[in-house]
Amino acid sequence: MSKNDRSPWFLPVIYVGGLIFGFGLAISGMARPEVVLDFLQFEDLGLLFVMGGAAVVTGITFAGATRYLDRAPLTASEYTRRVKDLDRNVIVGGTIFGVGWGVSGICPGAAYASVGIGNYPILWAIGGMFLGAYVQGYWRTFRSDDAAGVTEVLSN
Amino acid sequence: MSLSMVPFAVSGFFPRGIMPYLFGGLLVGFGTAVIYLATNITAGASTFLESTLSYVSNVSRFNRLDYVQSRDWRLVFTAGIVSGAAVYGFVLHPGGWTTNVQWWRLLGGGILVGAGTRLGKGCTSGHGVCGVGSLSNTSIVNVGTFLVVAIGTAQLVQALGVAP
């Protein structure tokens, strides 16, 4: 999508969408590591309703828009579903993420929301996430100099 | 556990009820839906990490065209998340709170979360909300993997006596 096709409302609407998203994360308790850890330790399964409730709303929205609507008004982009390839990285990455989520009780969106609540110790986690993302990006860039990396770039 | 304790055990799985969770989840979905309906963007929260690194790093992974093109709106999306939570934490429930989870758990877990979401192509919002909502096999596999591993890890951490 070219930036020139964007309506002036593009960034304001992204902001408002993020605002609702963050407000929901705050109400849901996802922004609180203790609540997430309670879920993972089977002491409070309420988080099932957070992910389930959110996925039902997006599921209905994606299915309805791709079937019945034409183009997104602010980008003139045709409604699509963004499906990512299933490869080994999805499983290895999910495993590493799972260990991190189980240790800390934080995930990216919920950590940003936690900052908004004034939970300053969460900055340890956000600093860690940037560090982790940097290390994997650096490693993959370095690795892409060899043949395995080249095929990966092509398949993307 | 005797049979008469079963109803208690079931309600015991939801000691804080389900309404804040359900309402919060519906709002998370609604925020995602607003962005999608307006722009055809399925917004995940973790790409922000790599796309924001493109502002400060020359590493080619972060300077892929889609990251550089999306980094501005991802900053705005994240600012929206922070502000929305602030509306809750400072307007509706003034005072906020801080976590008791120890700093080394946050830092160490954060490093793994940052590496894992980017290698695995998404996180609880990208895969867990958008991907599962699209019935994407990739996302369902990713979410199933991280849920099982996270439960095992959290139980192990608890069994080792680490708290909070």
TrEMBL record, chain A:
It comes from the Archaea. The chain crosses the membrane at residues 9-27, 47-69, 90-111, 117-135. Keywords: Membrane, Transmembrane, Transmembrane helix. This is DUF6691 family protein. The lineage of its organism: Archaea, Methanobacteriati, Methanobacteriota, Stenosarchaea group, Halobacteria.
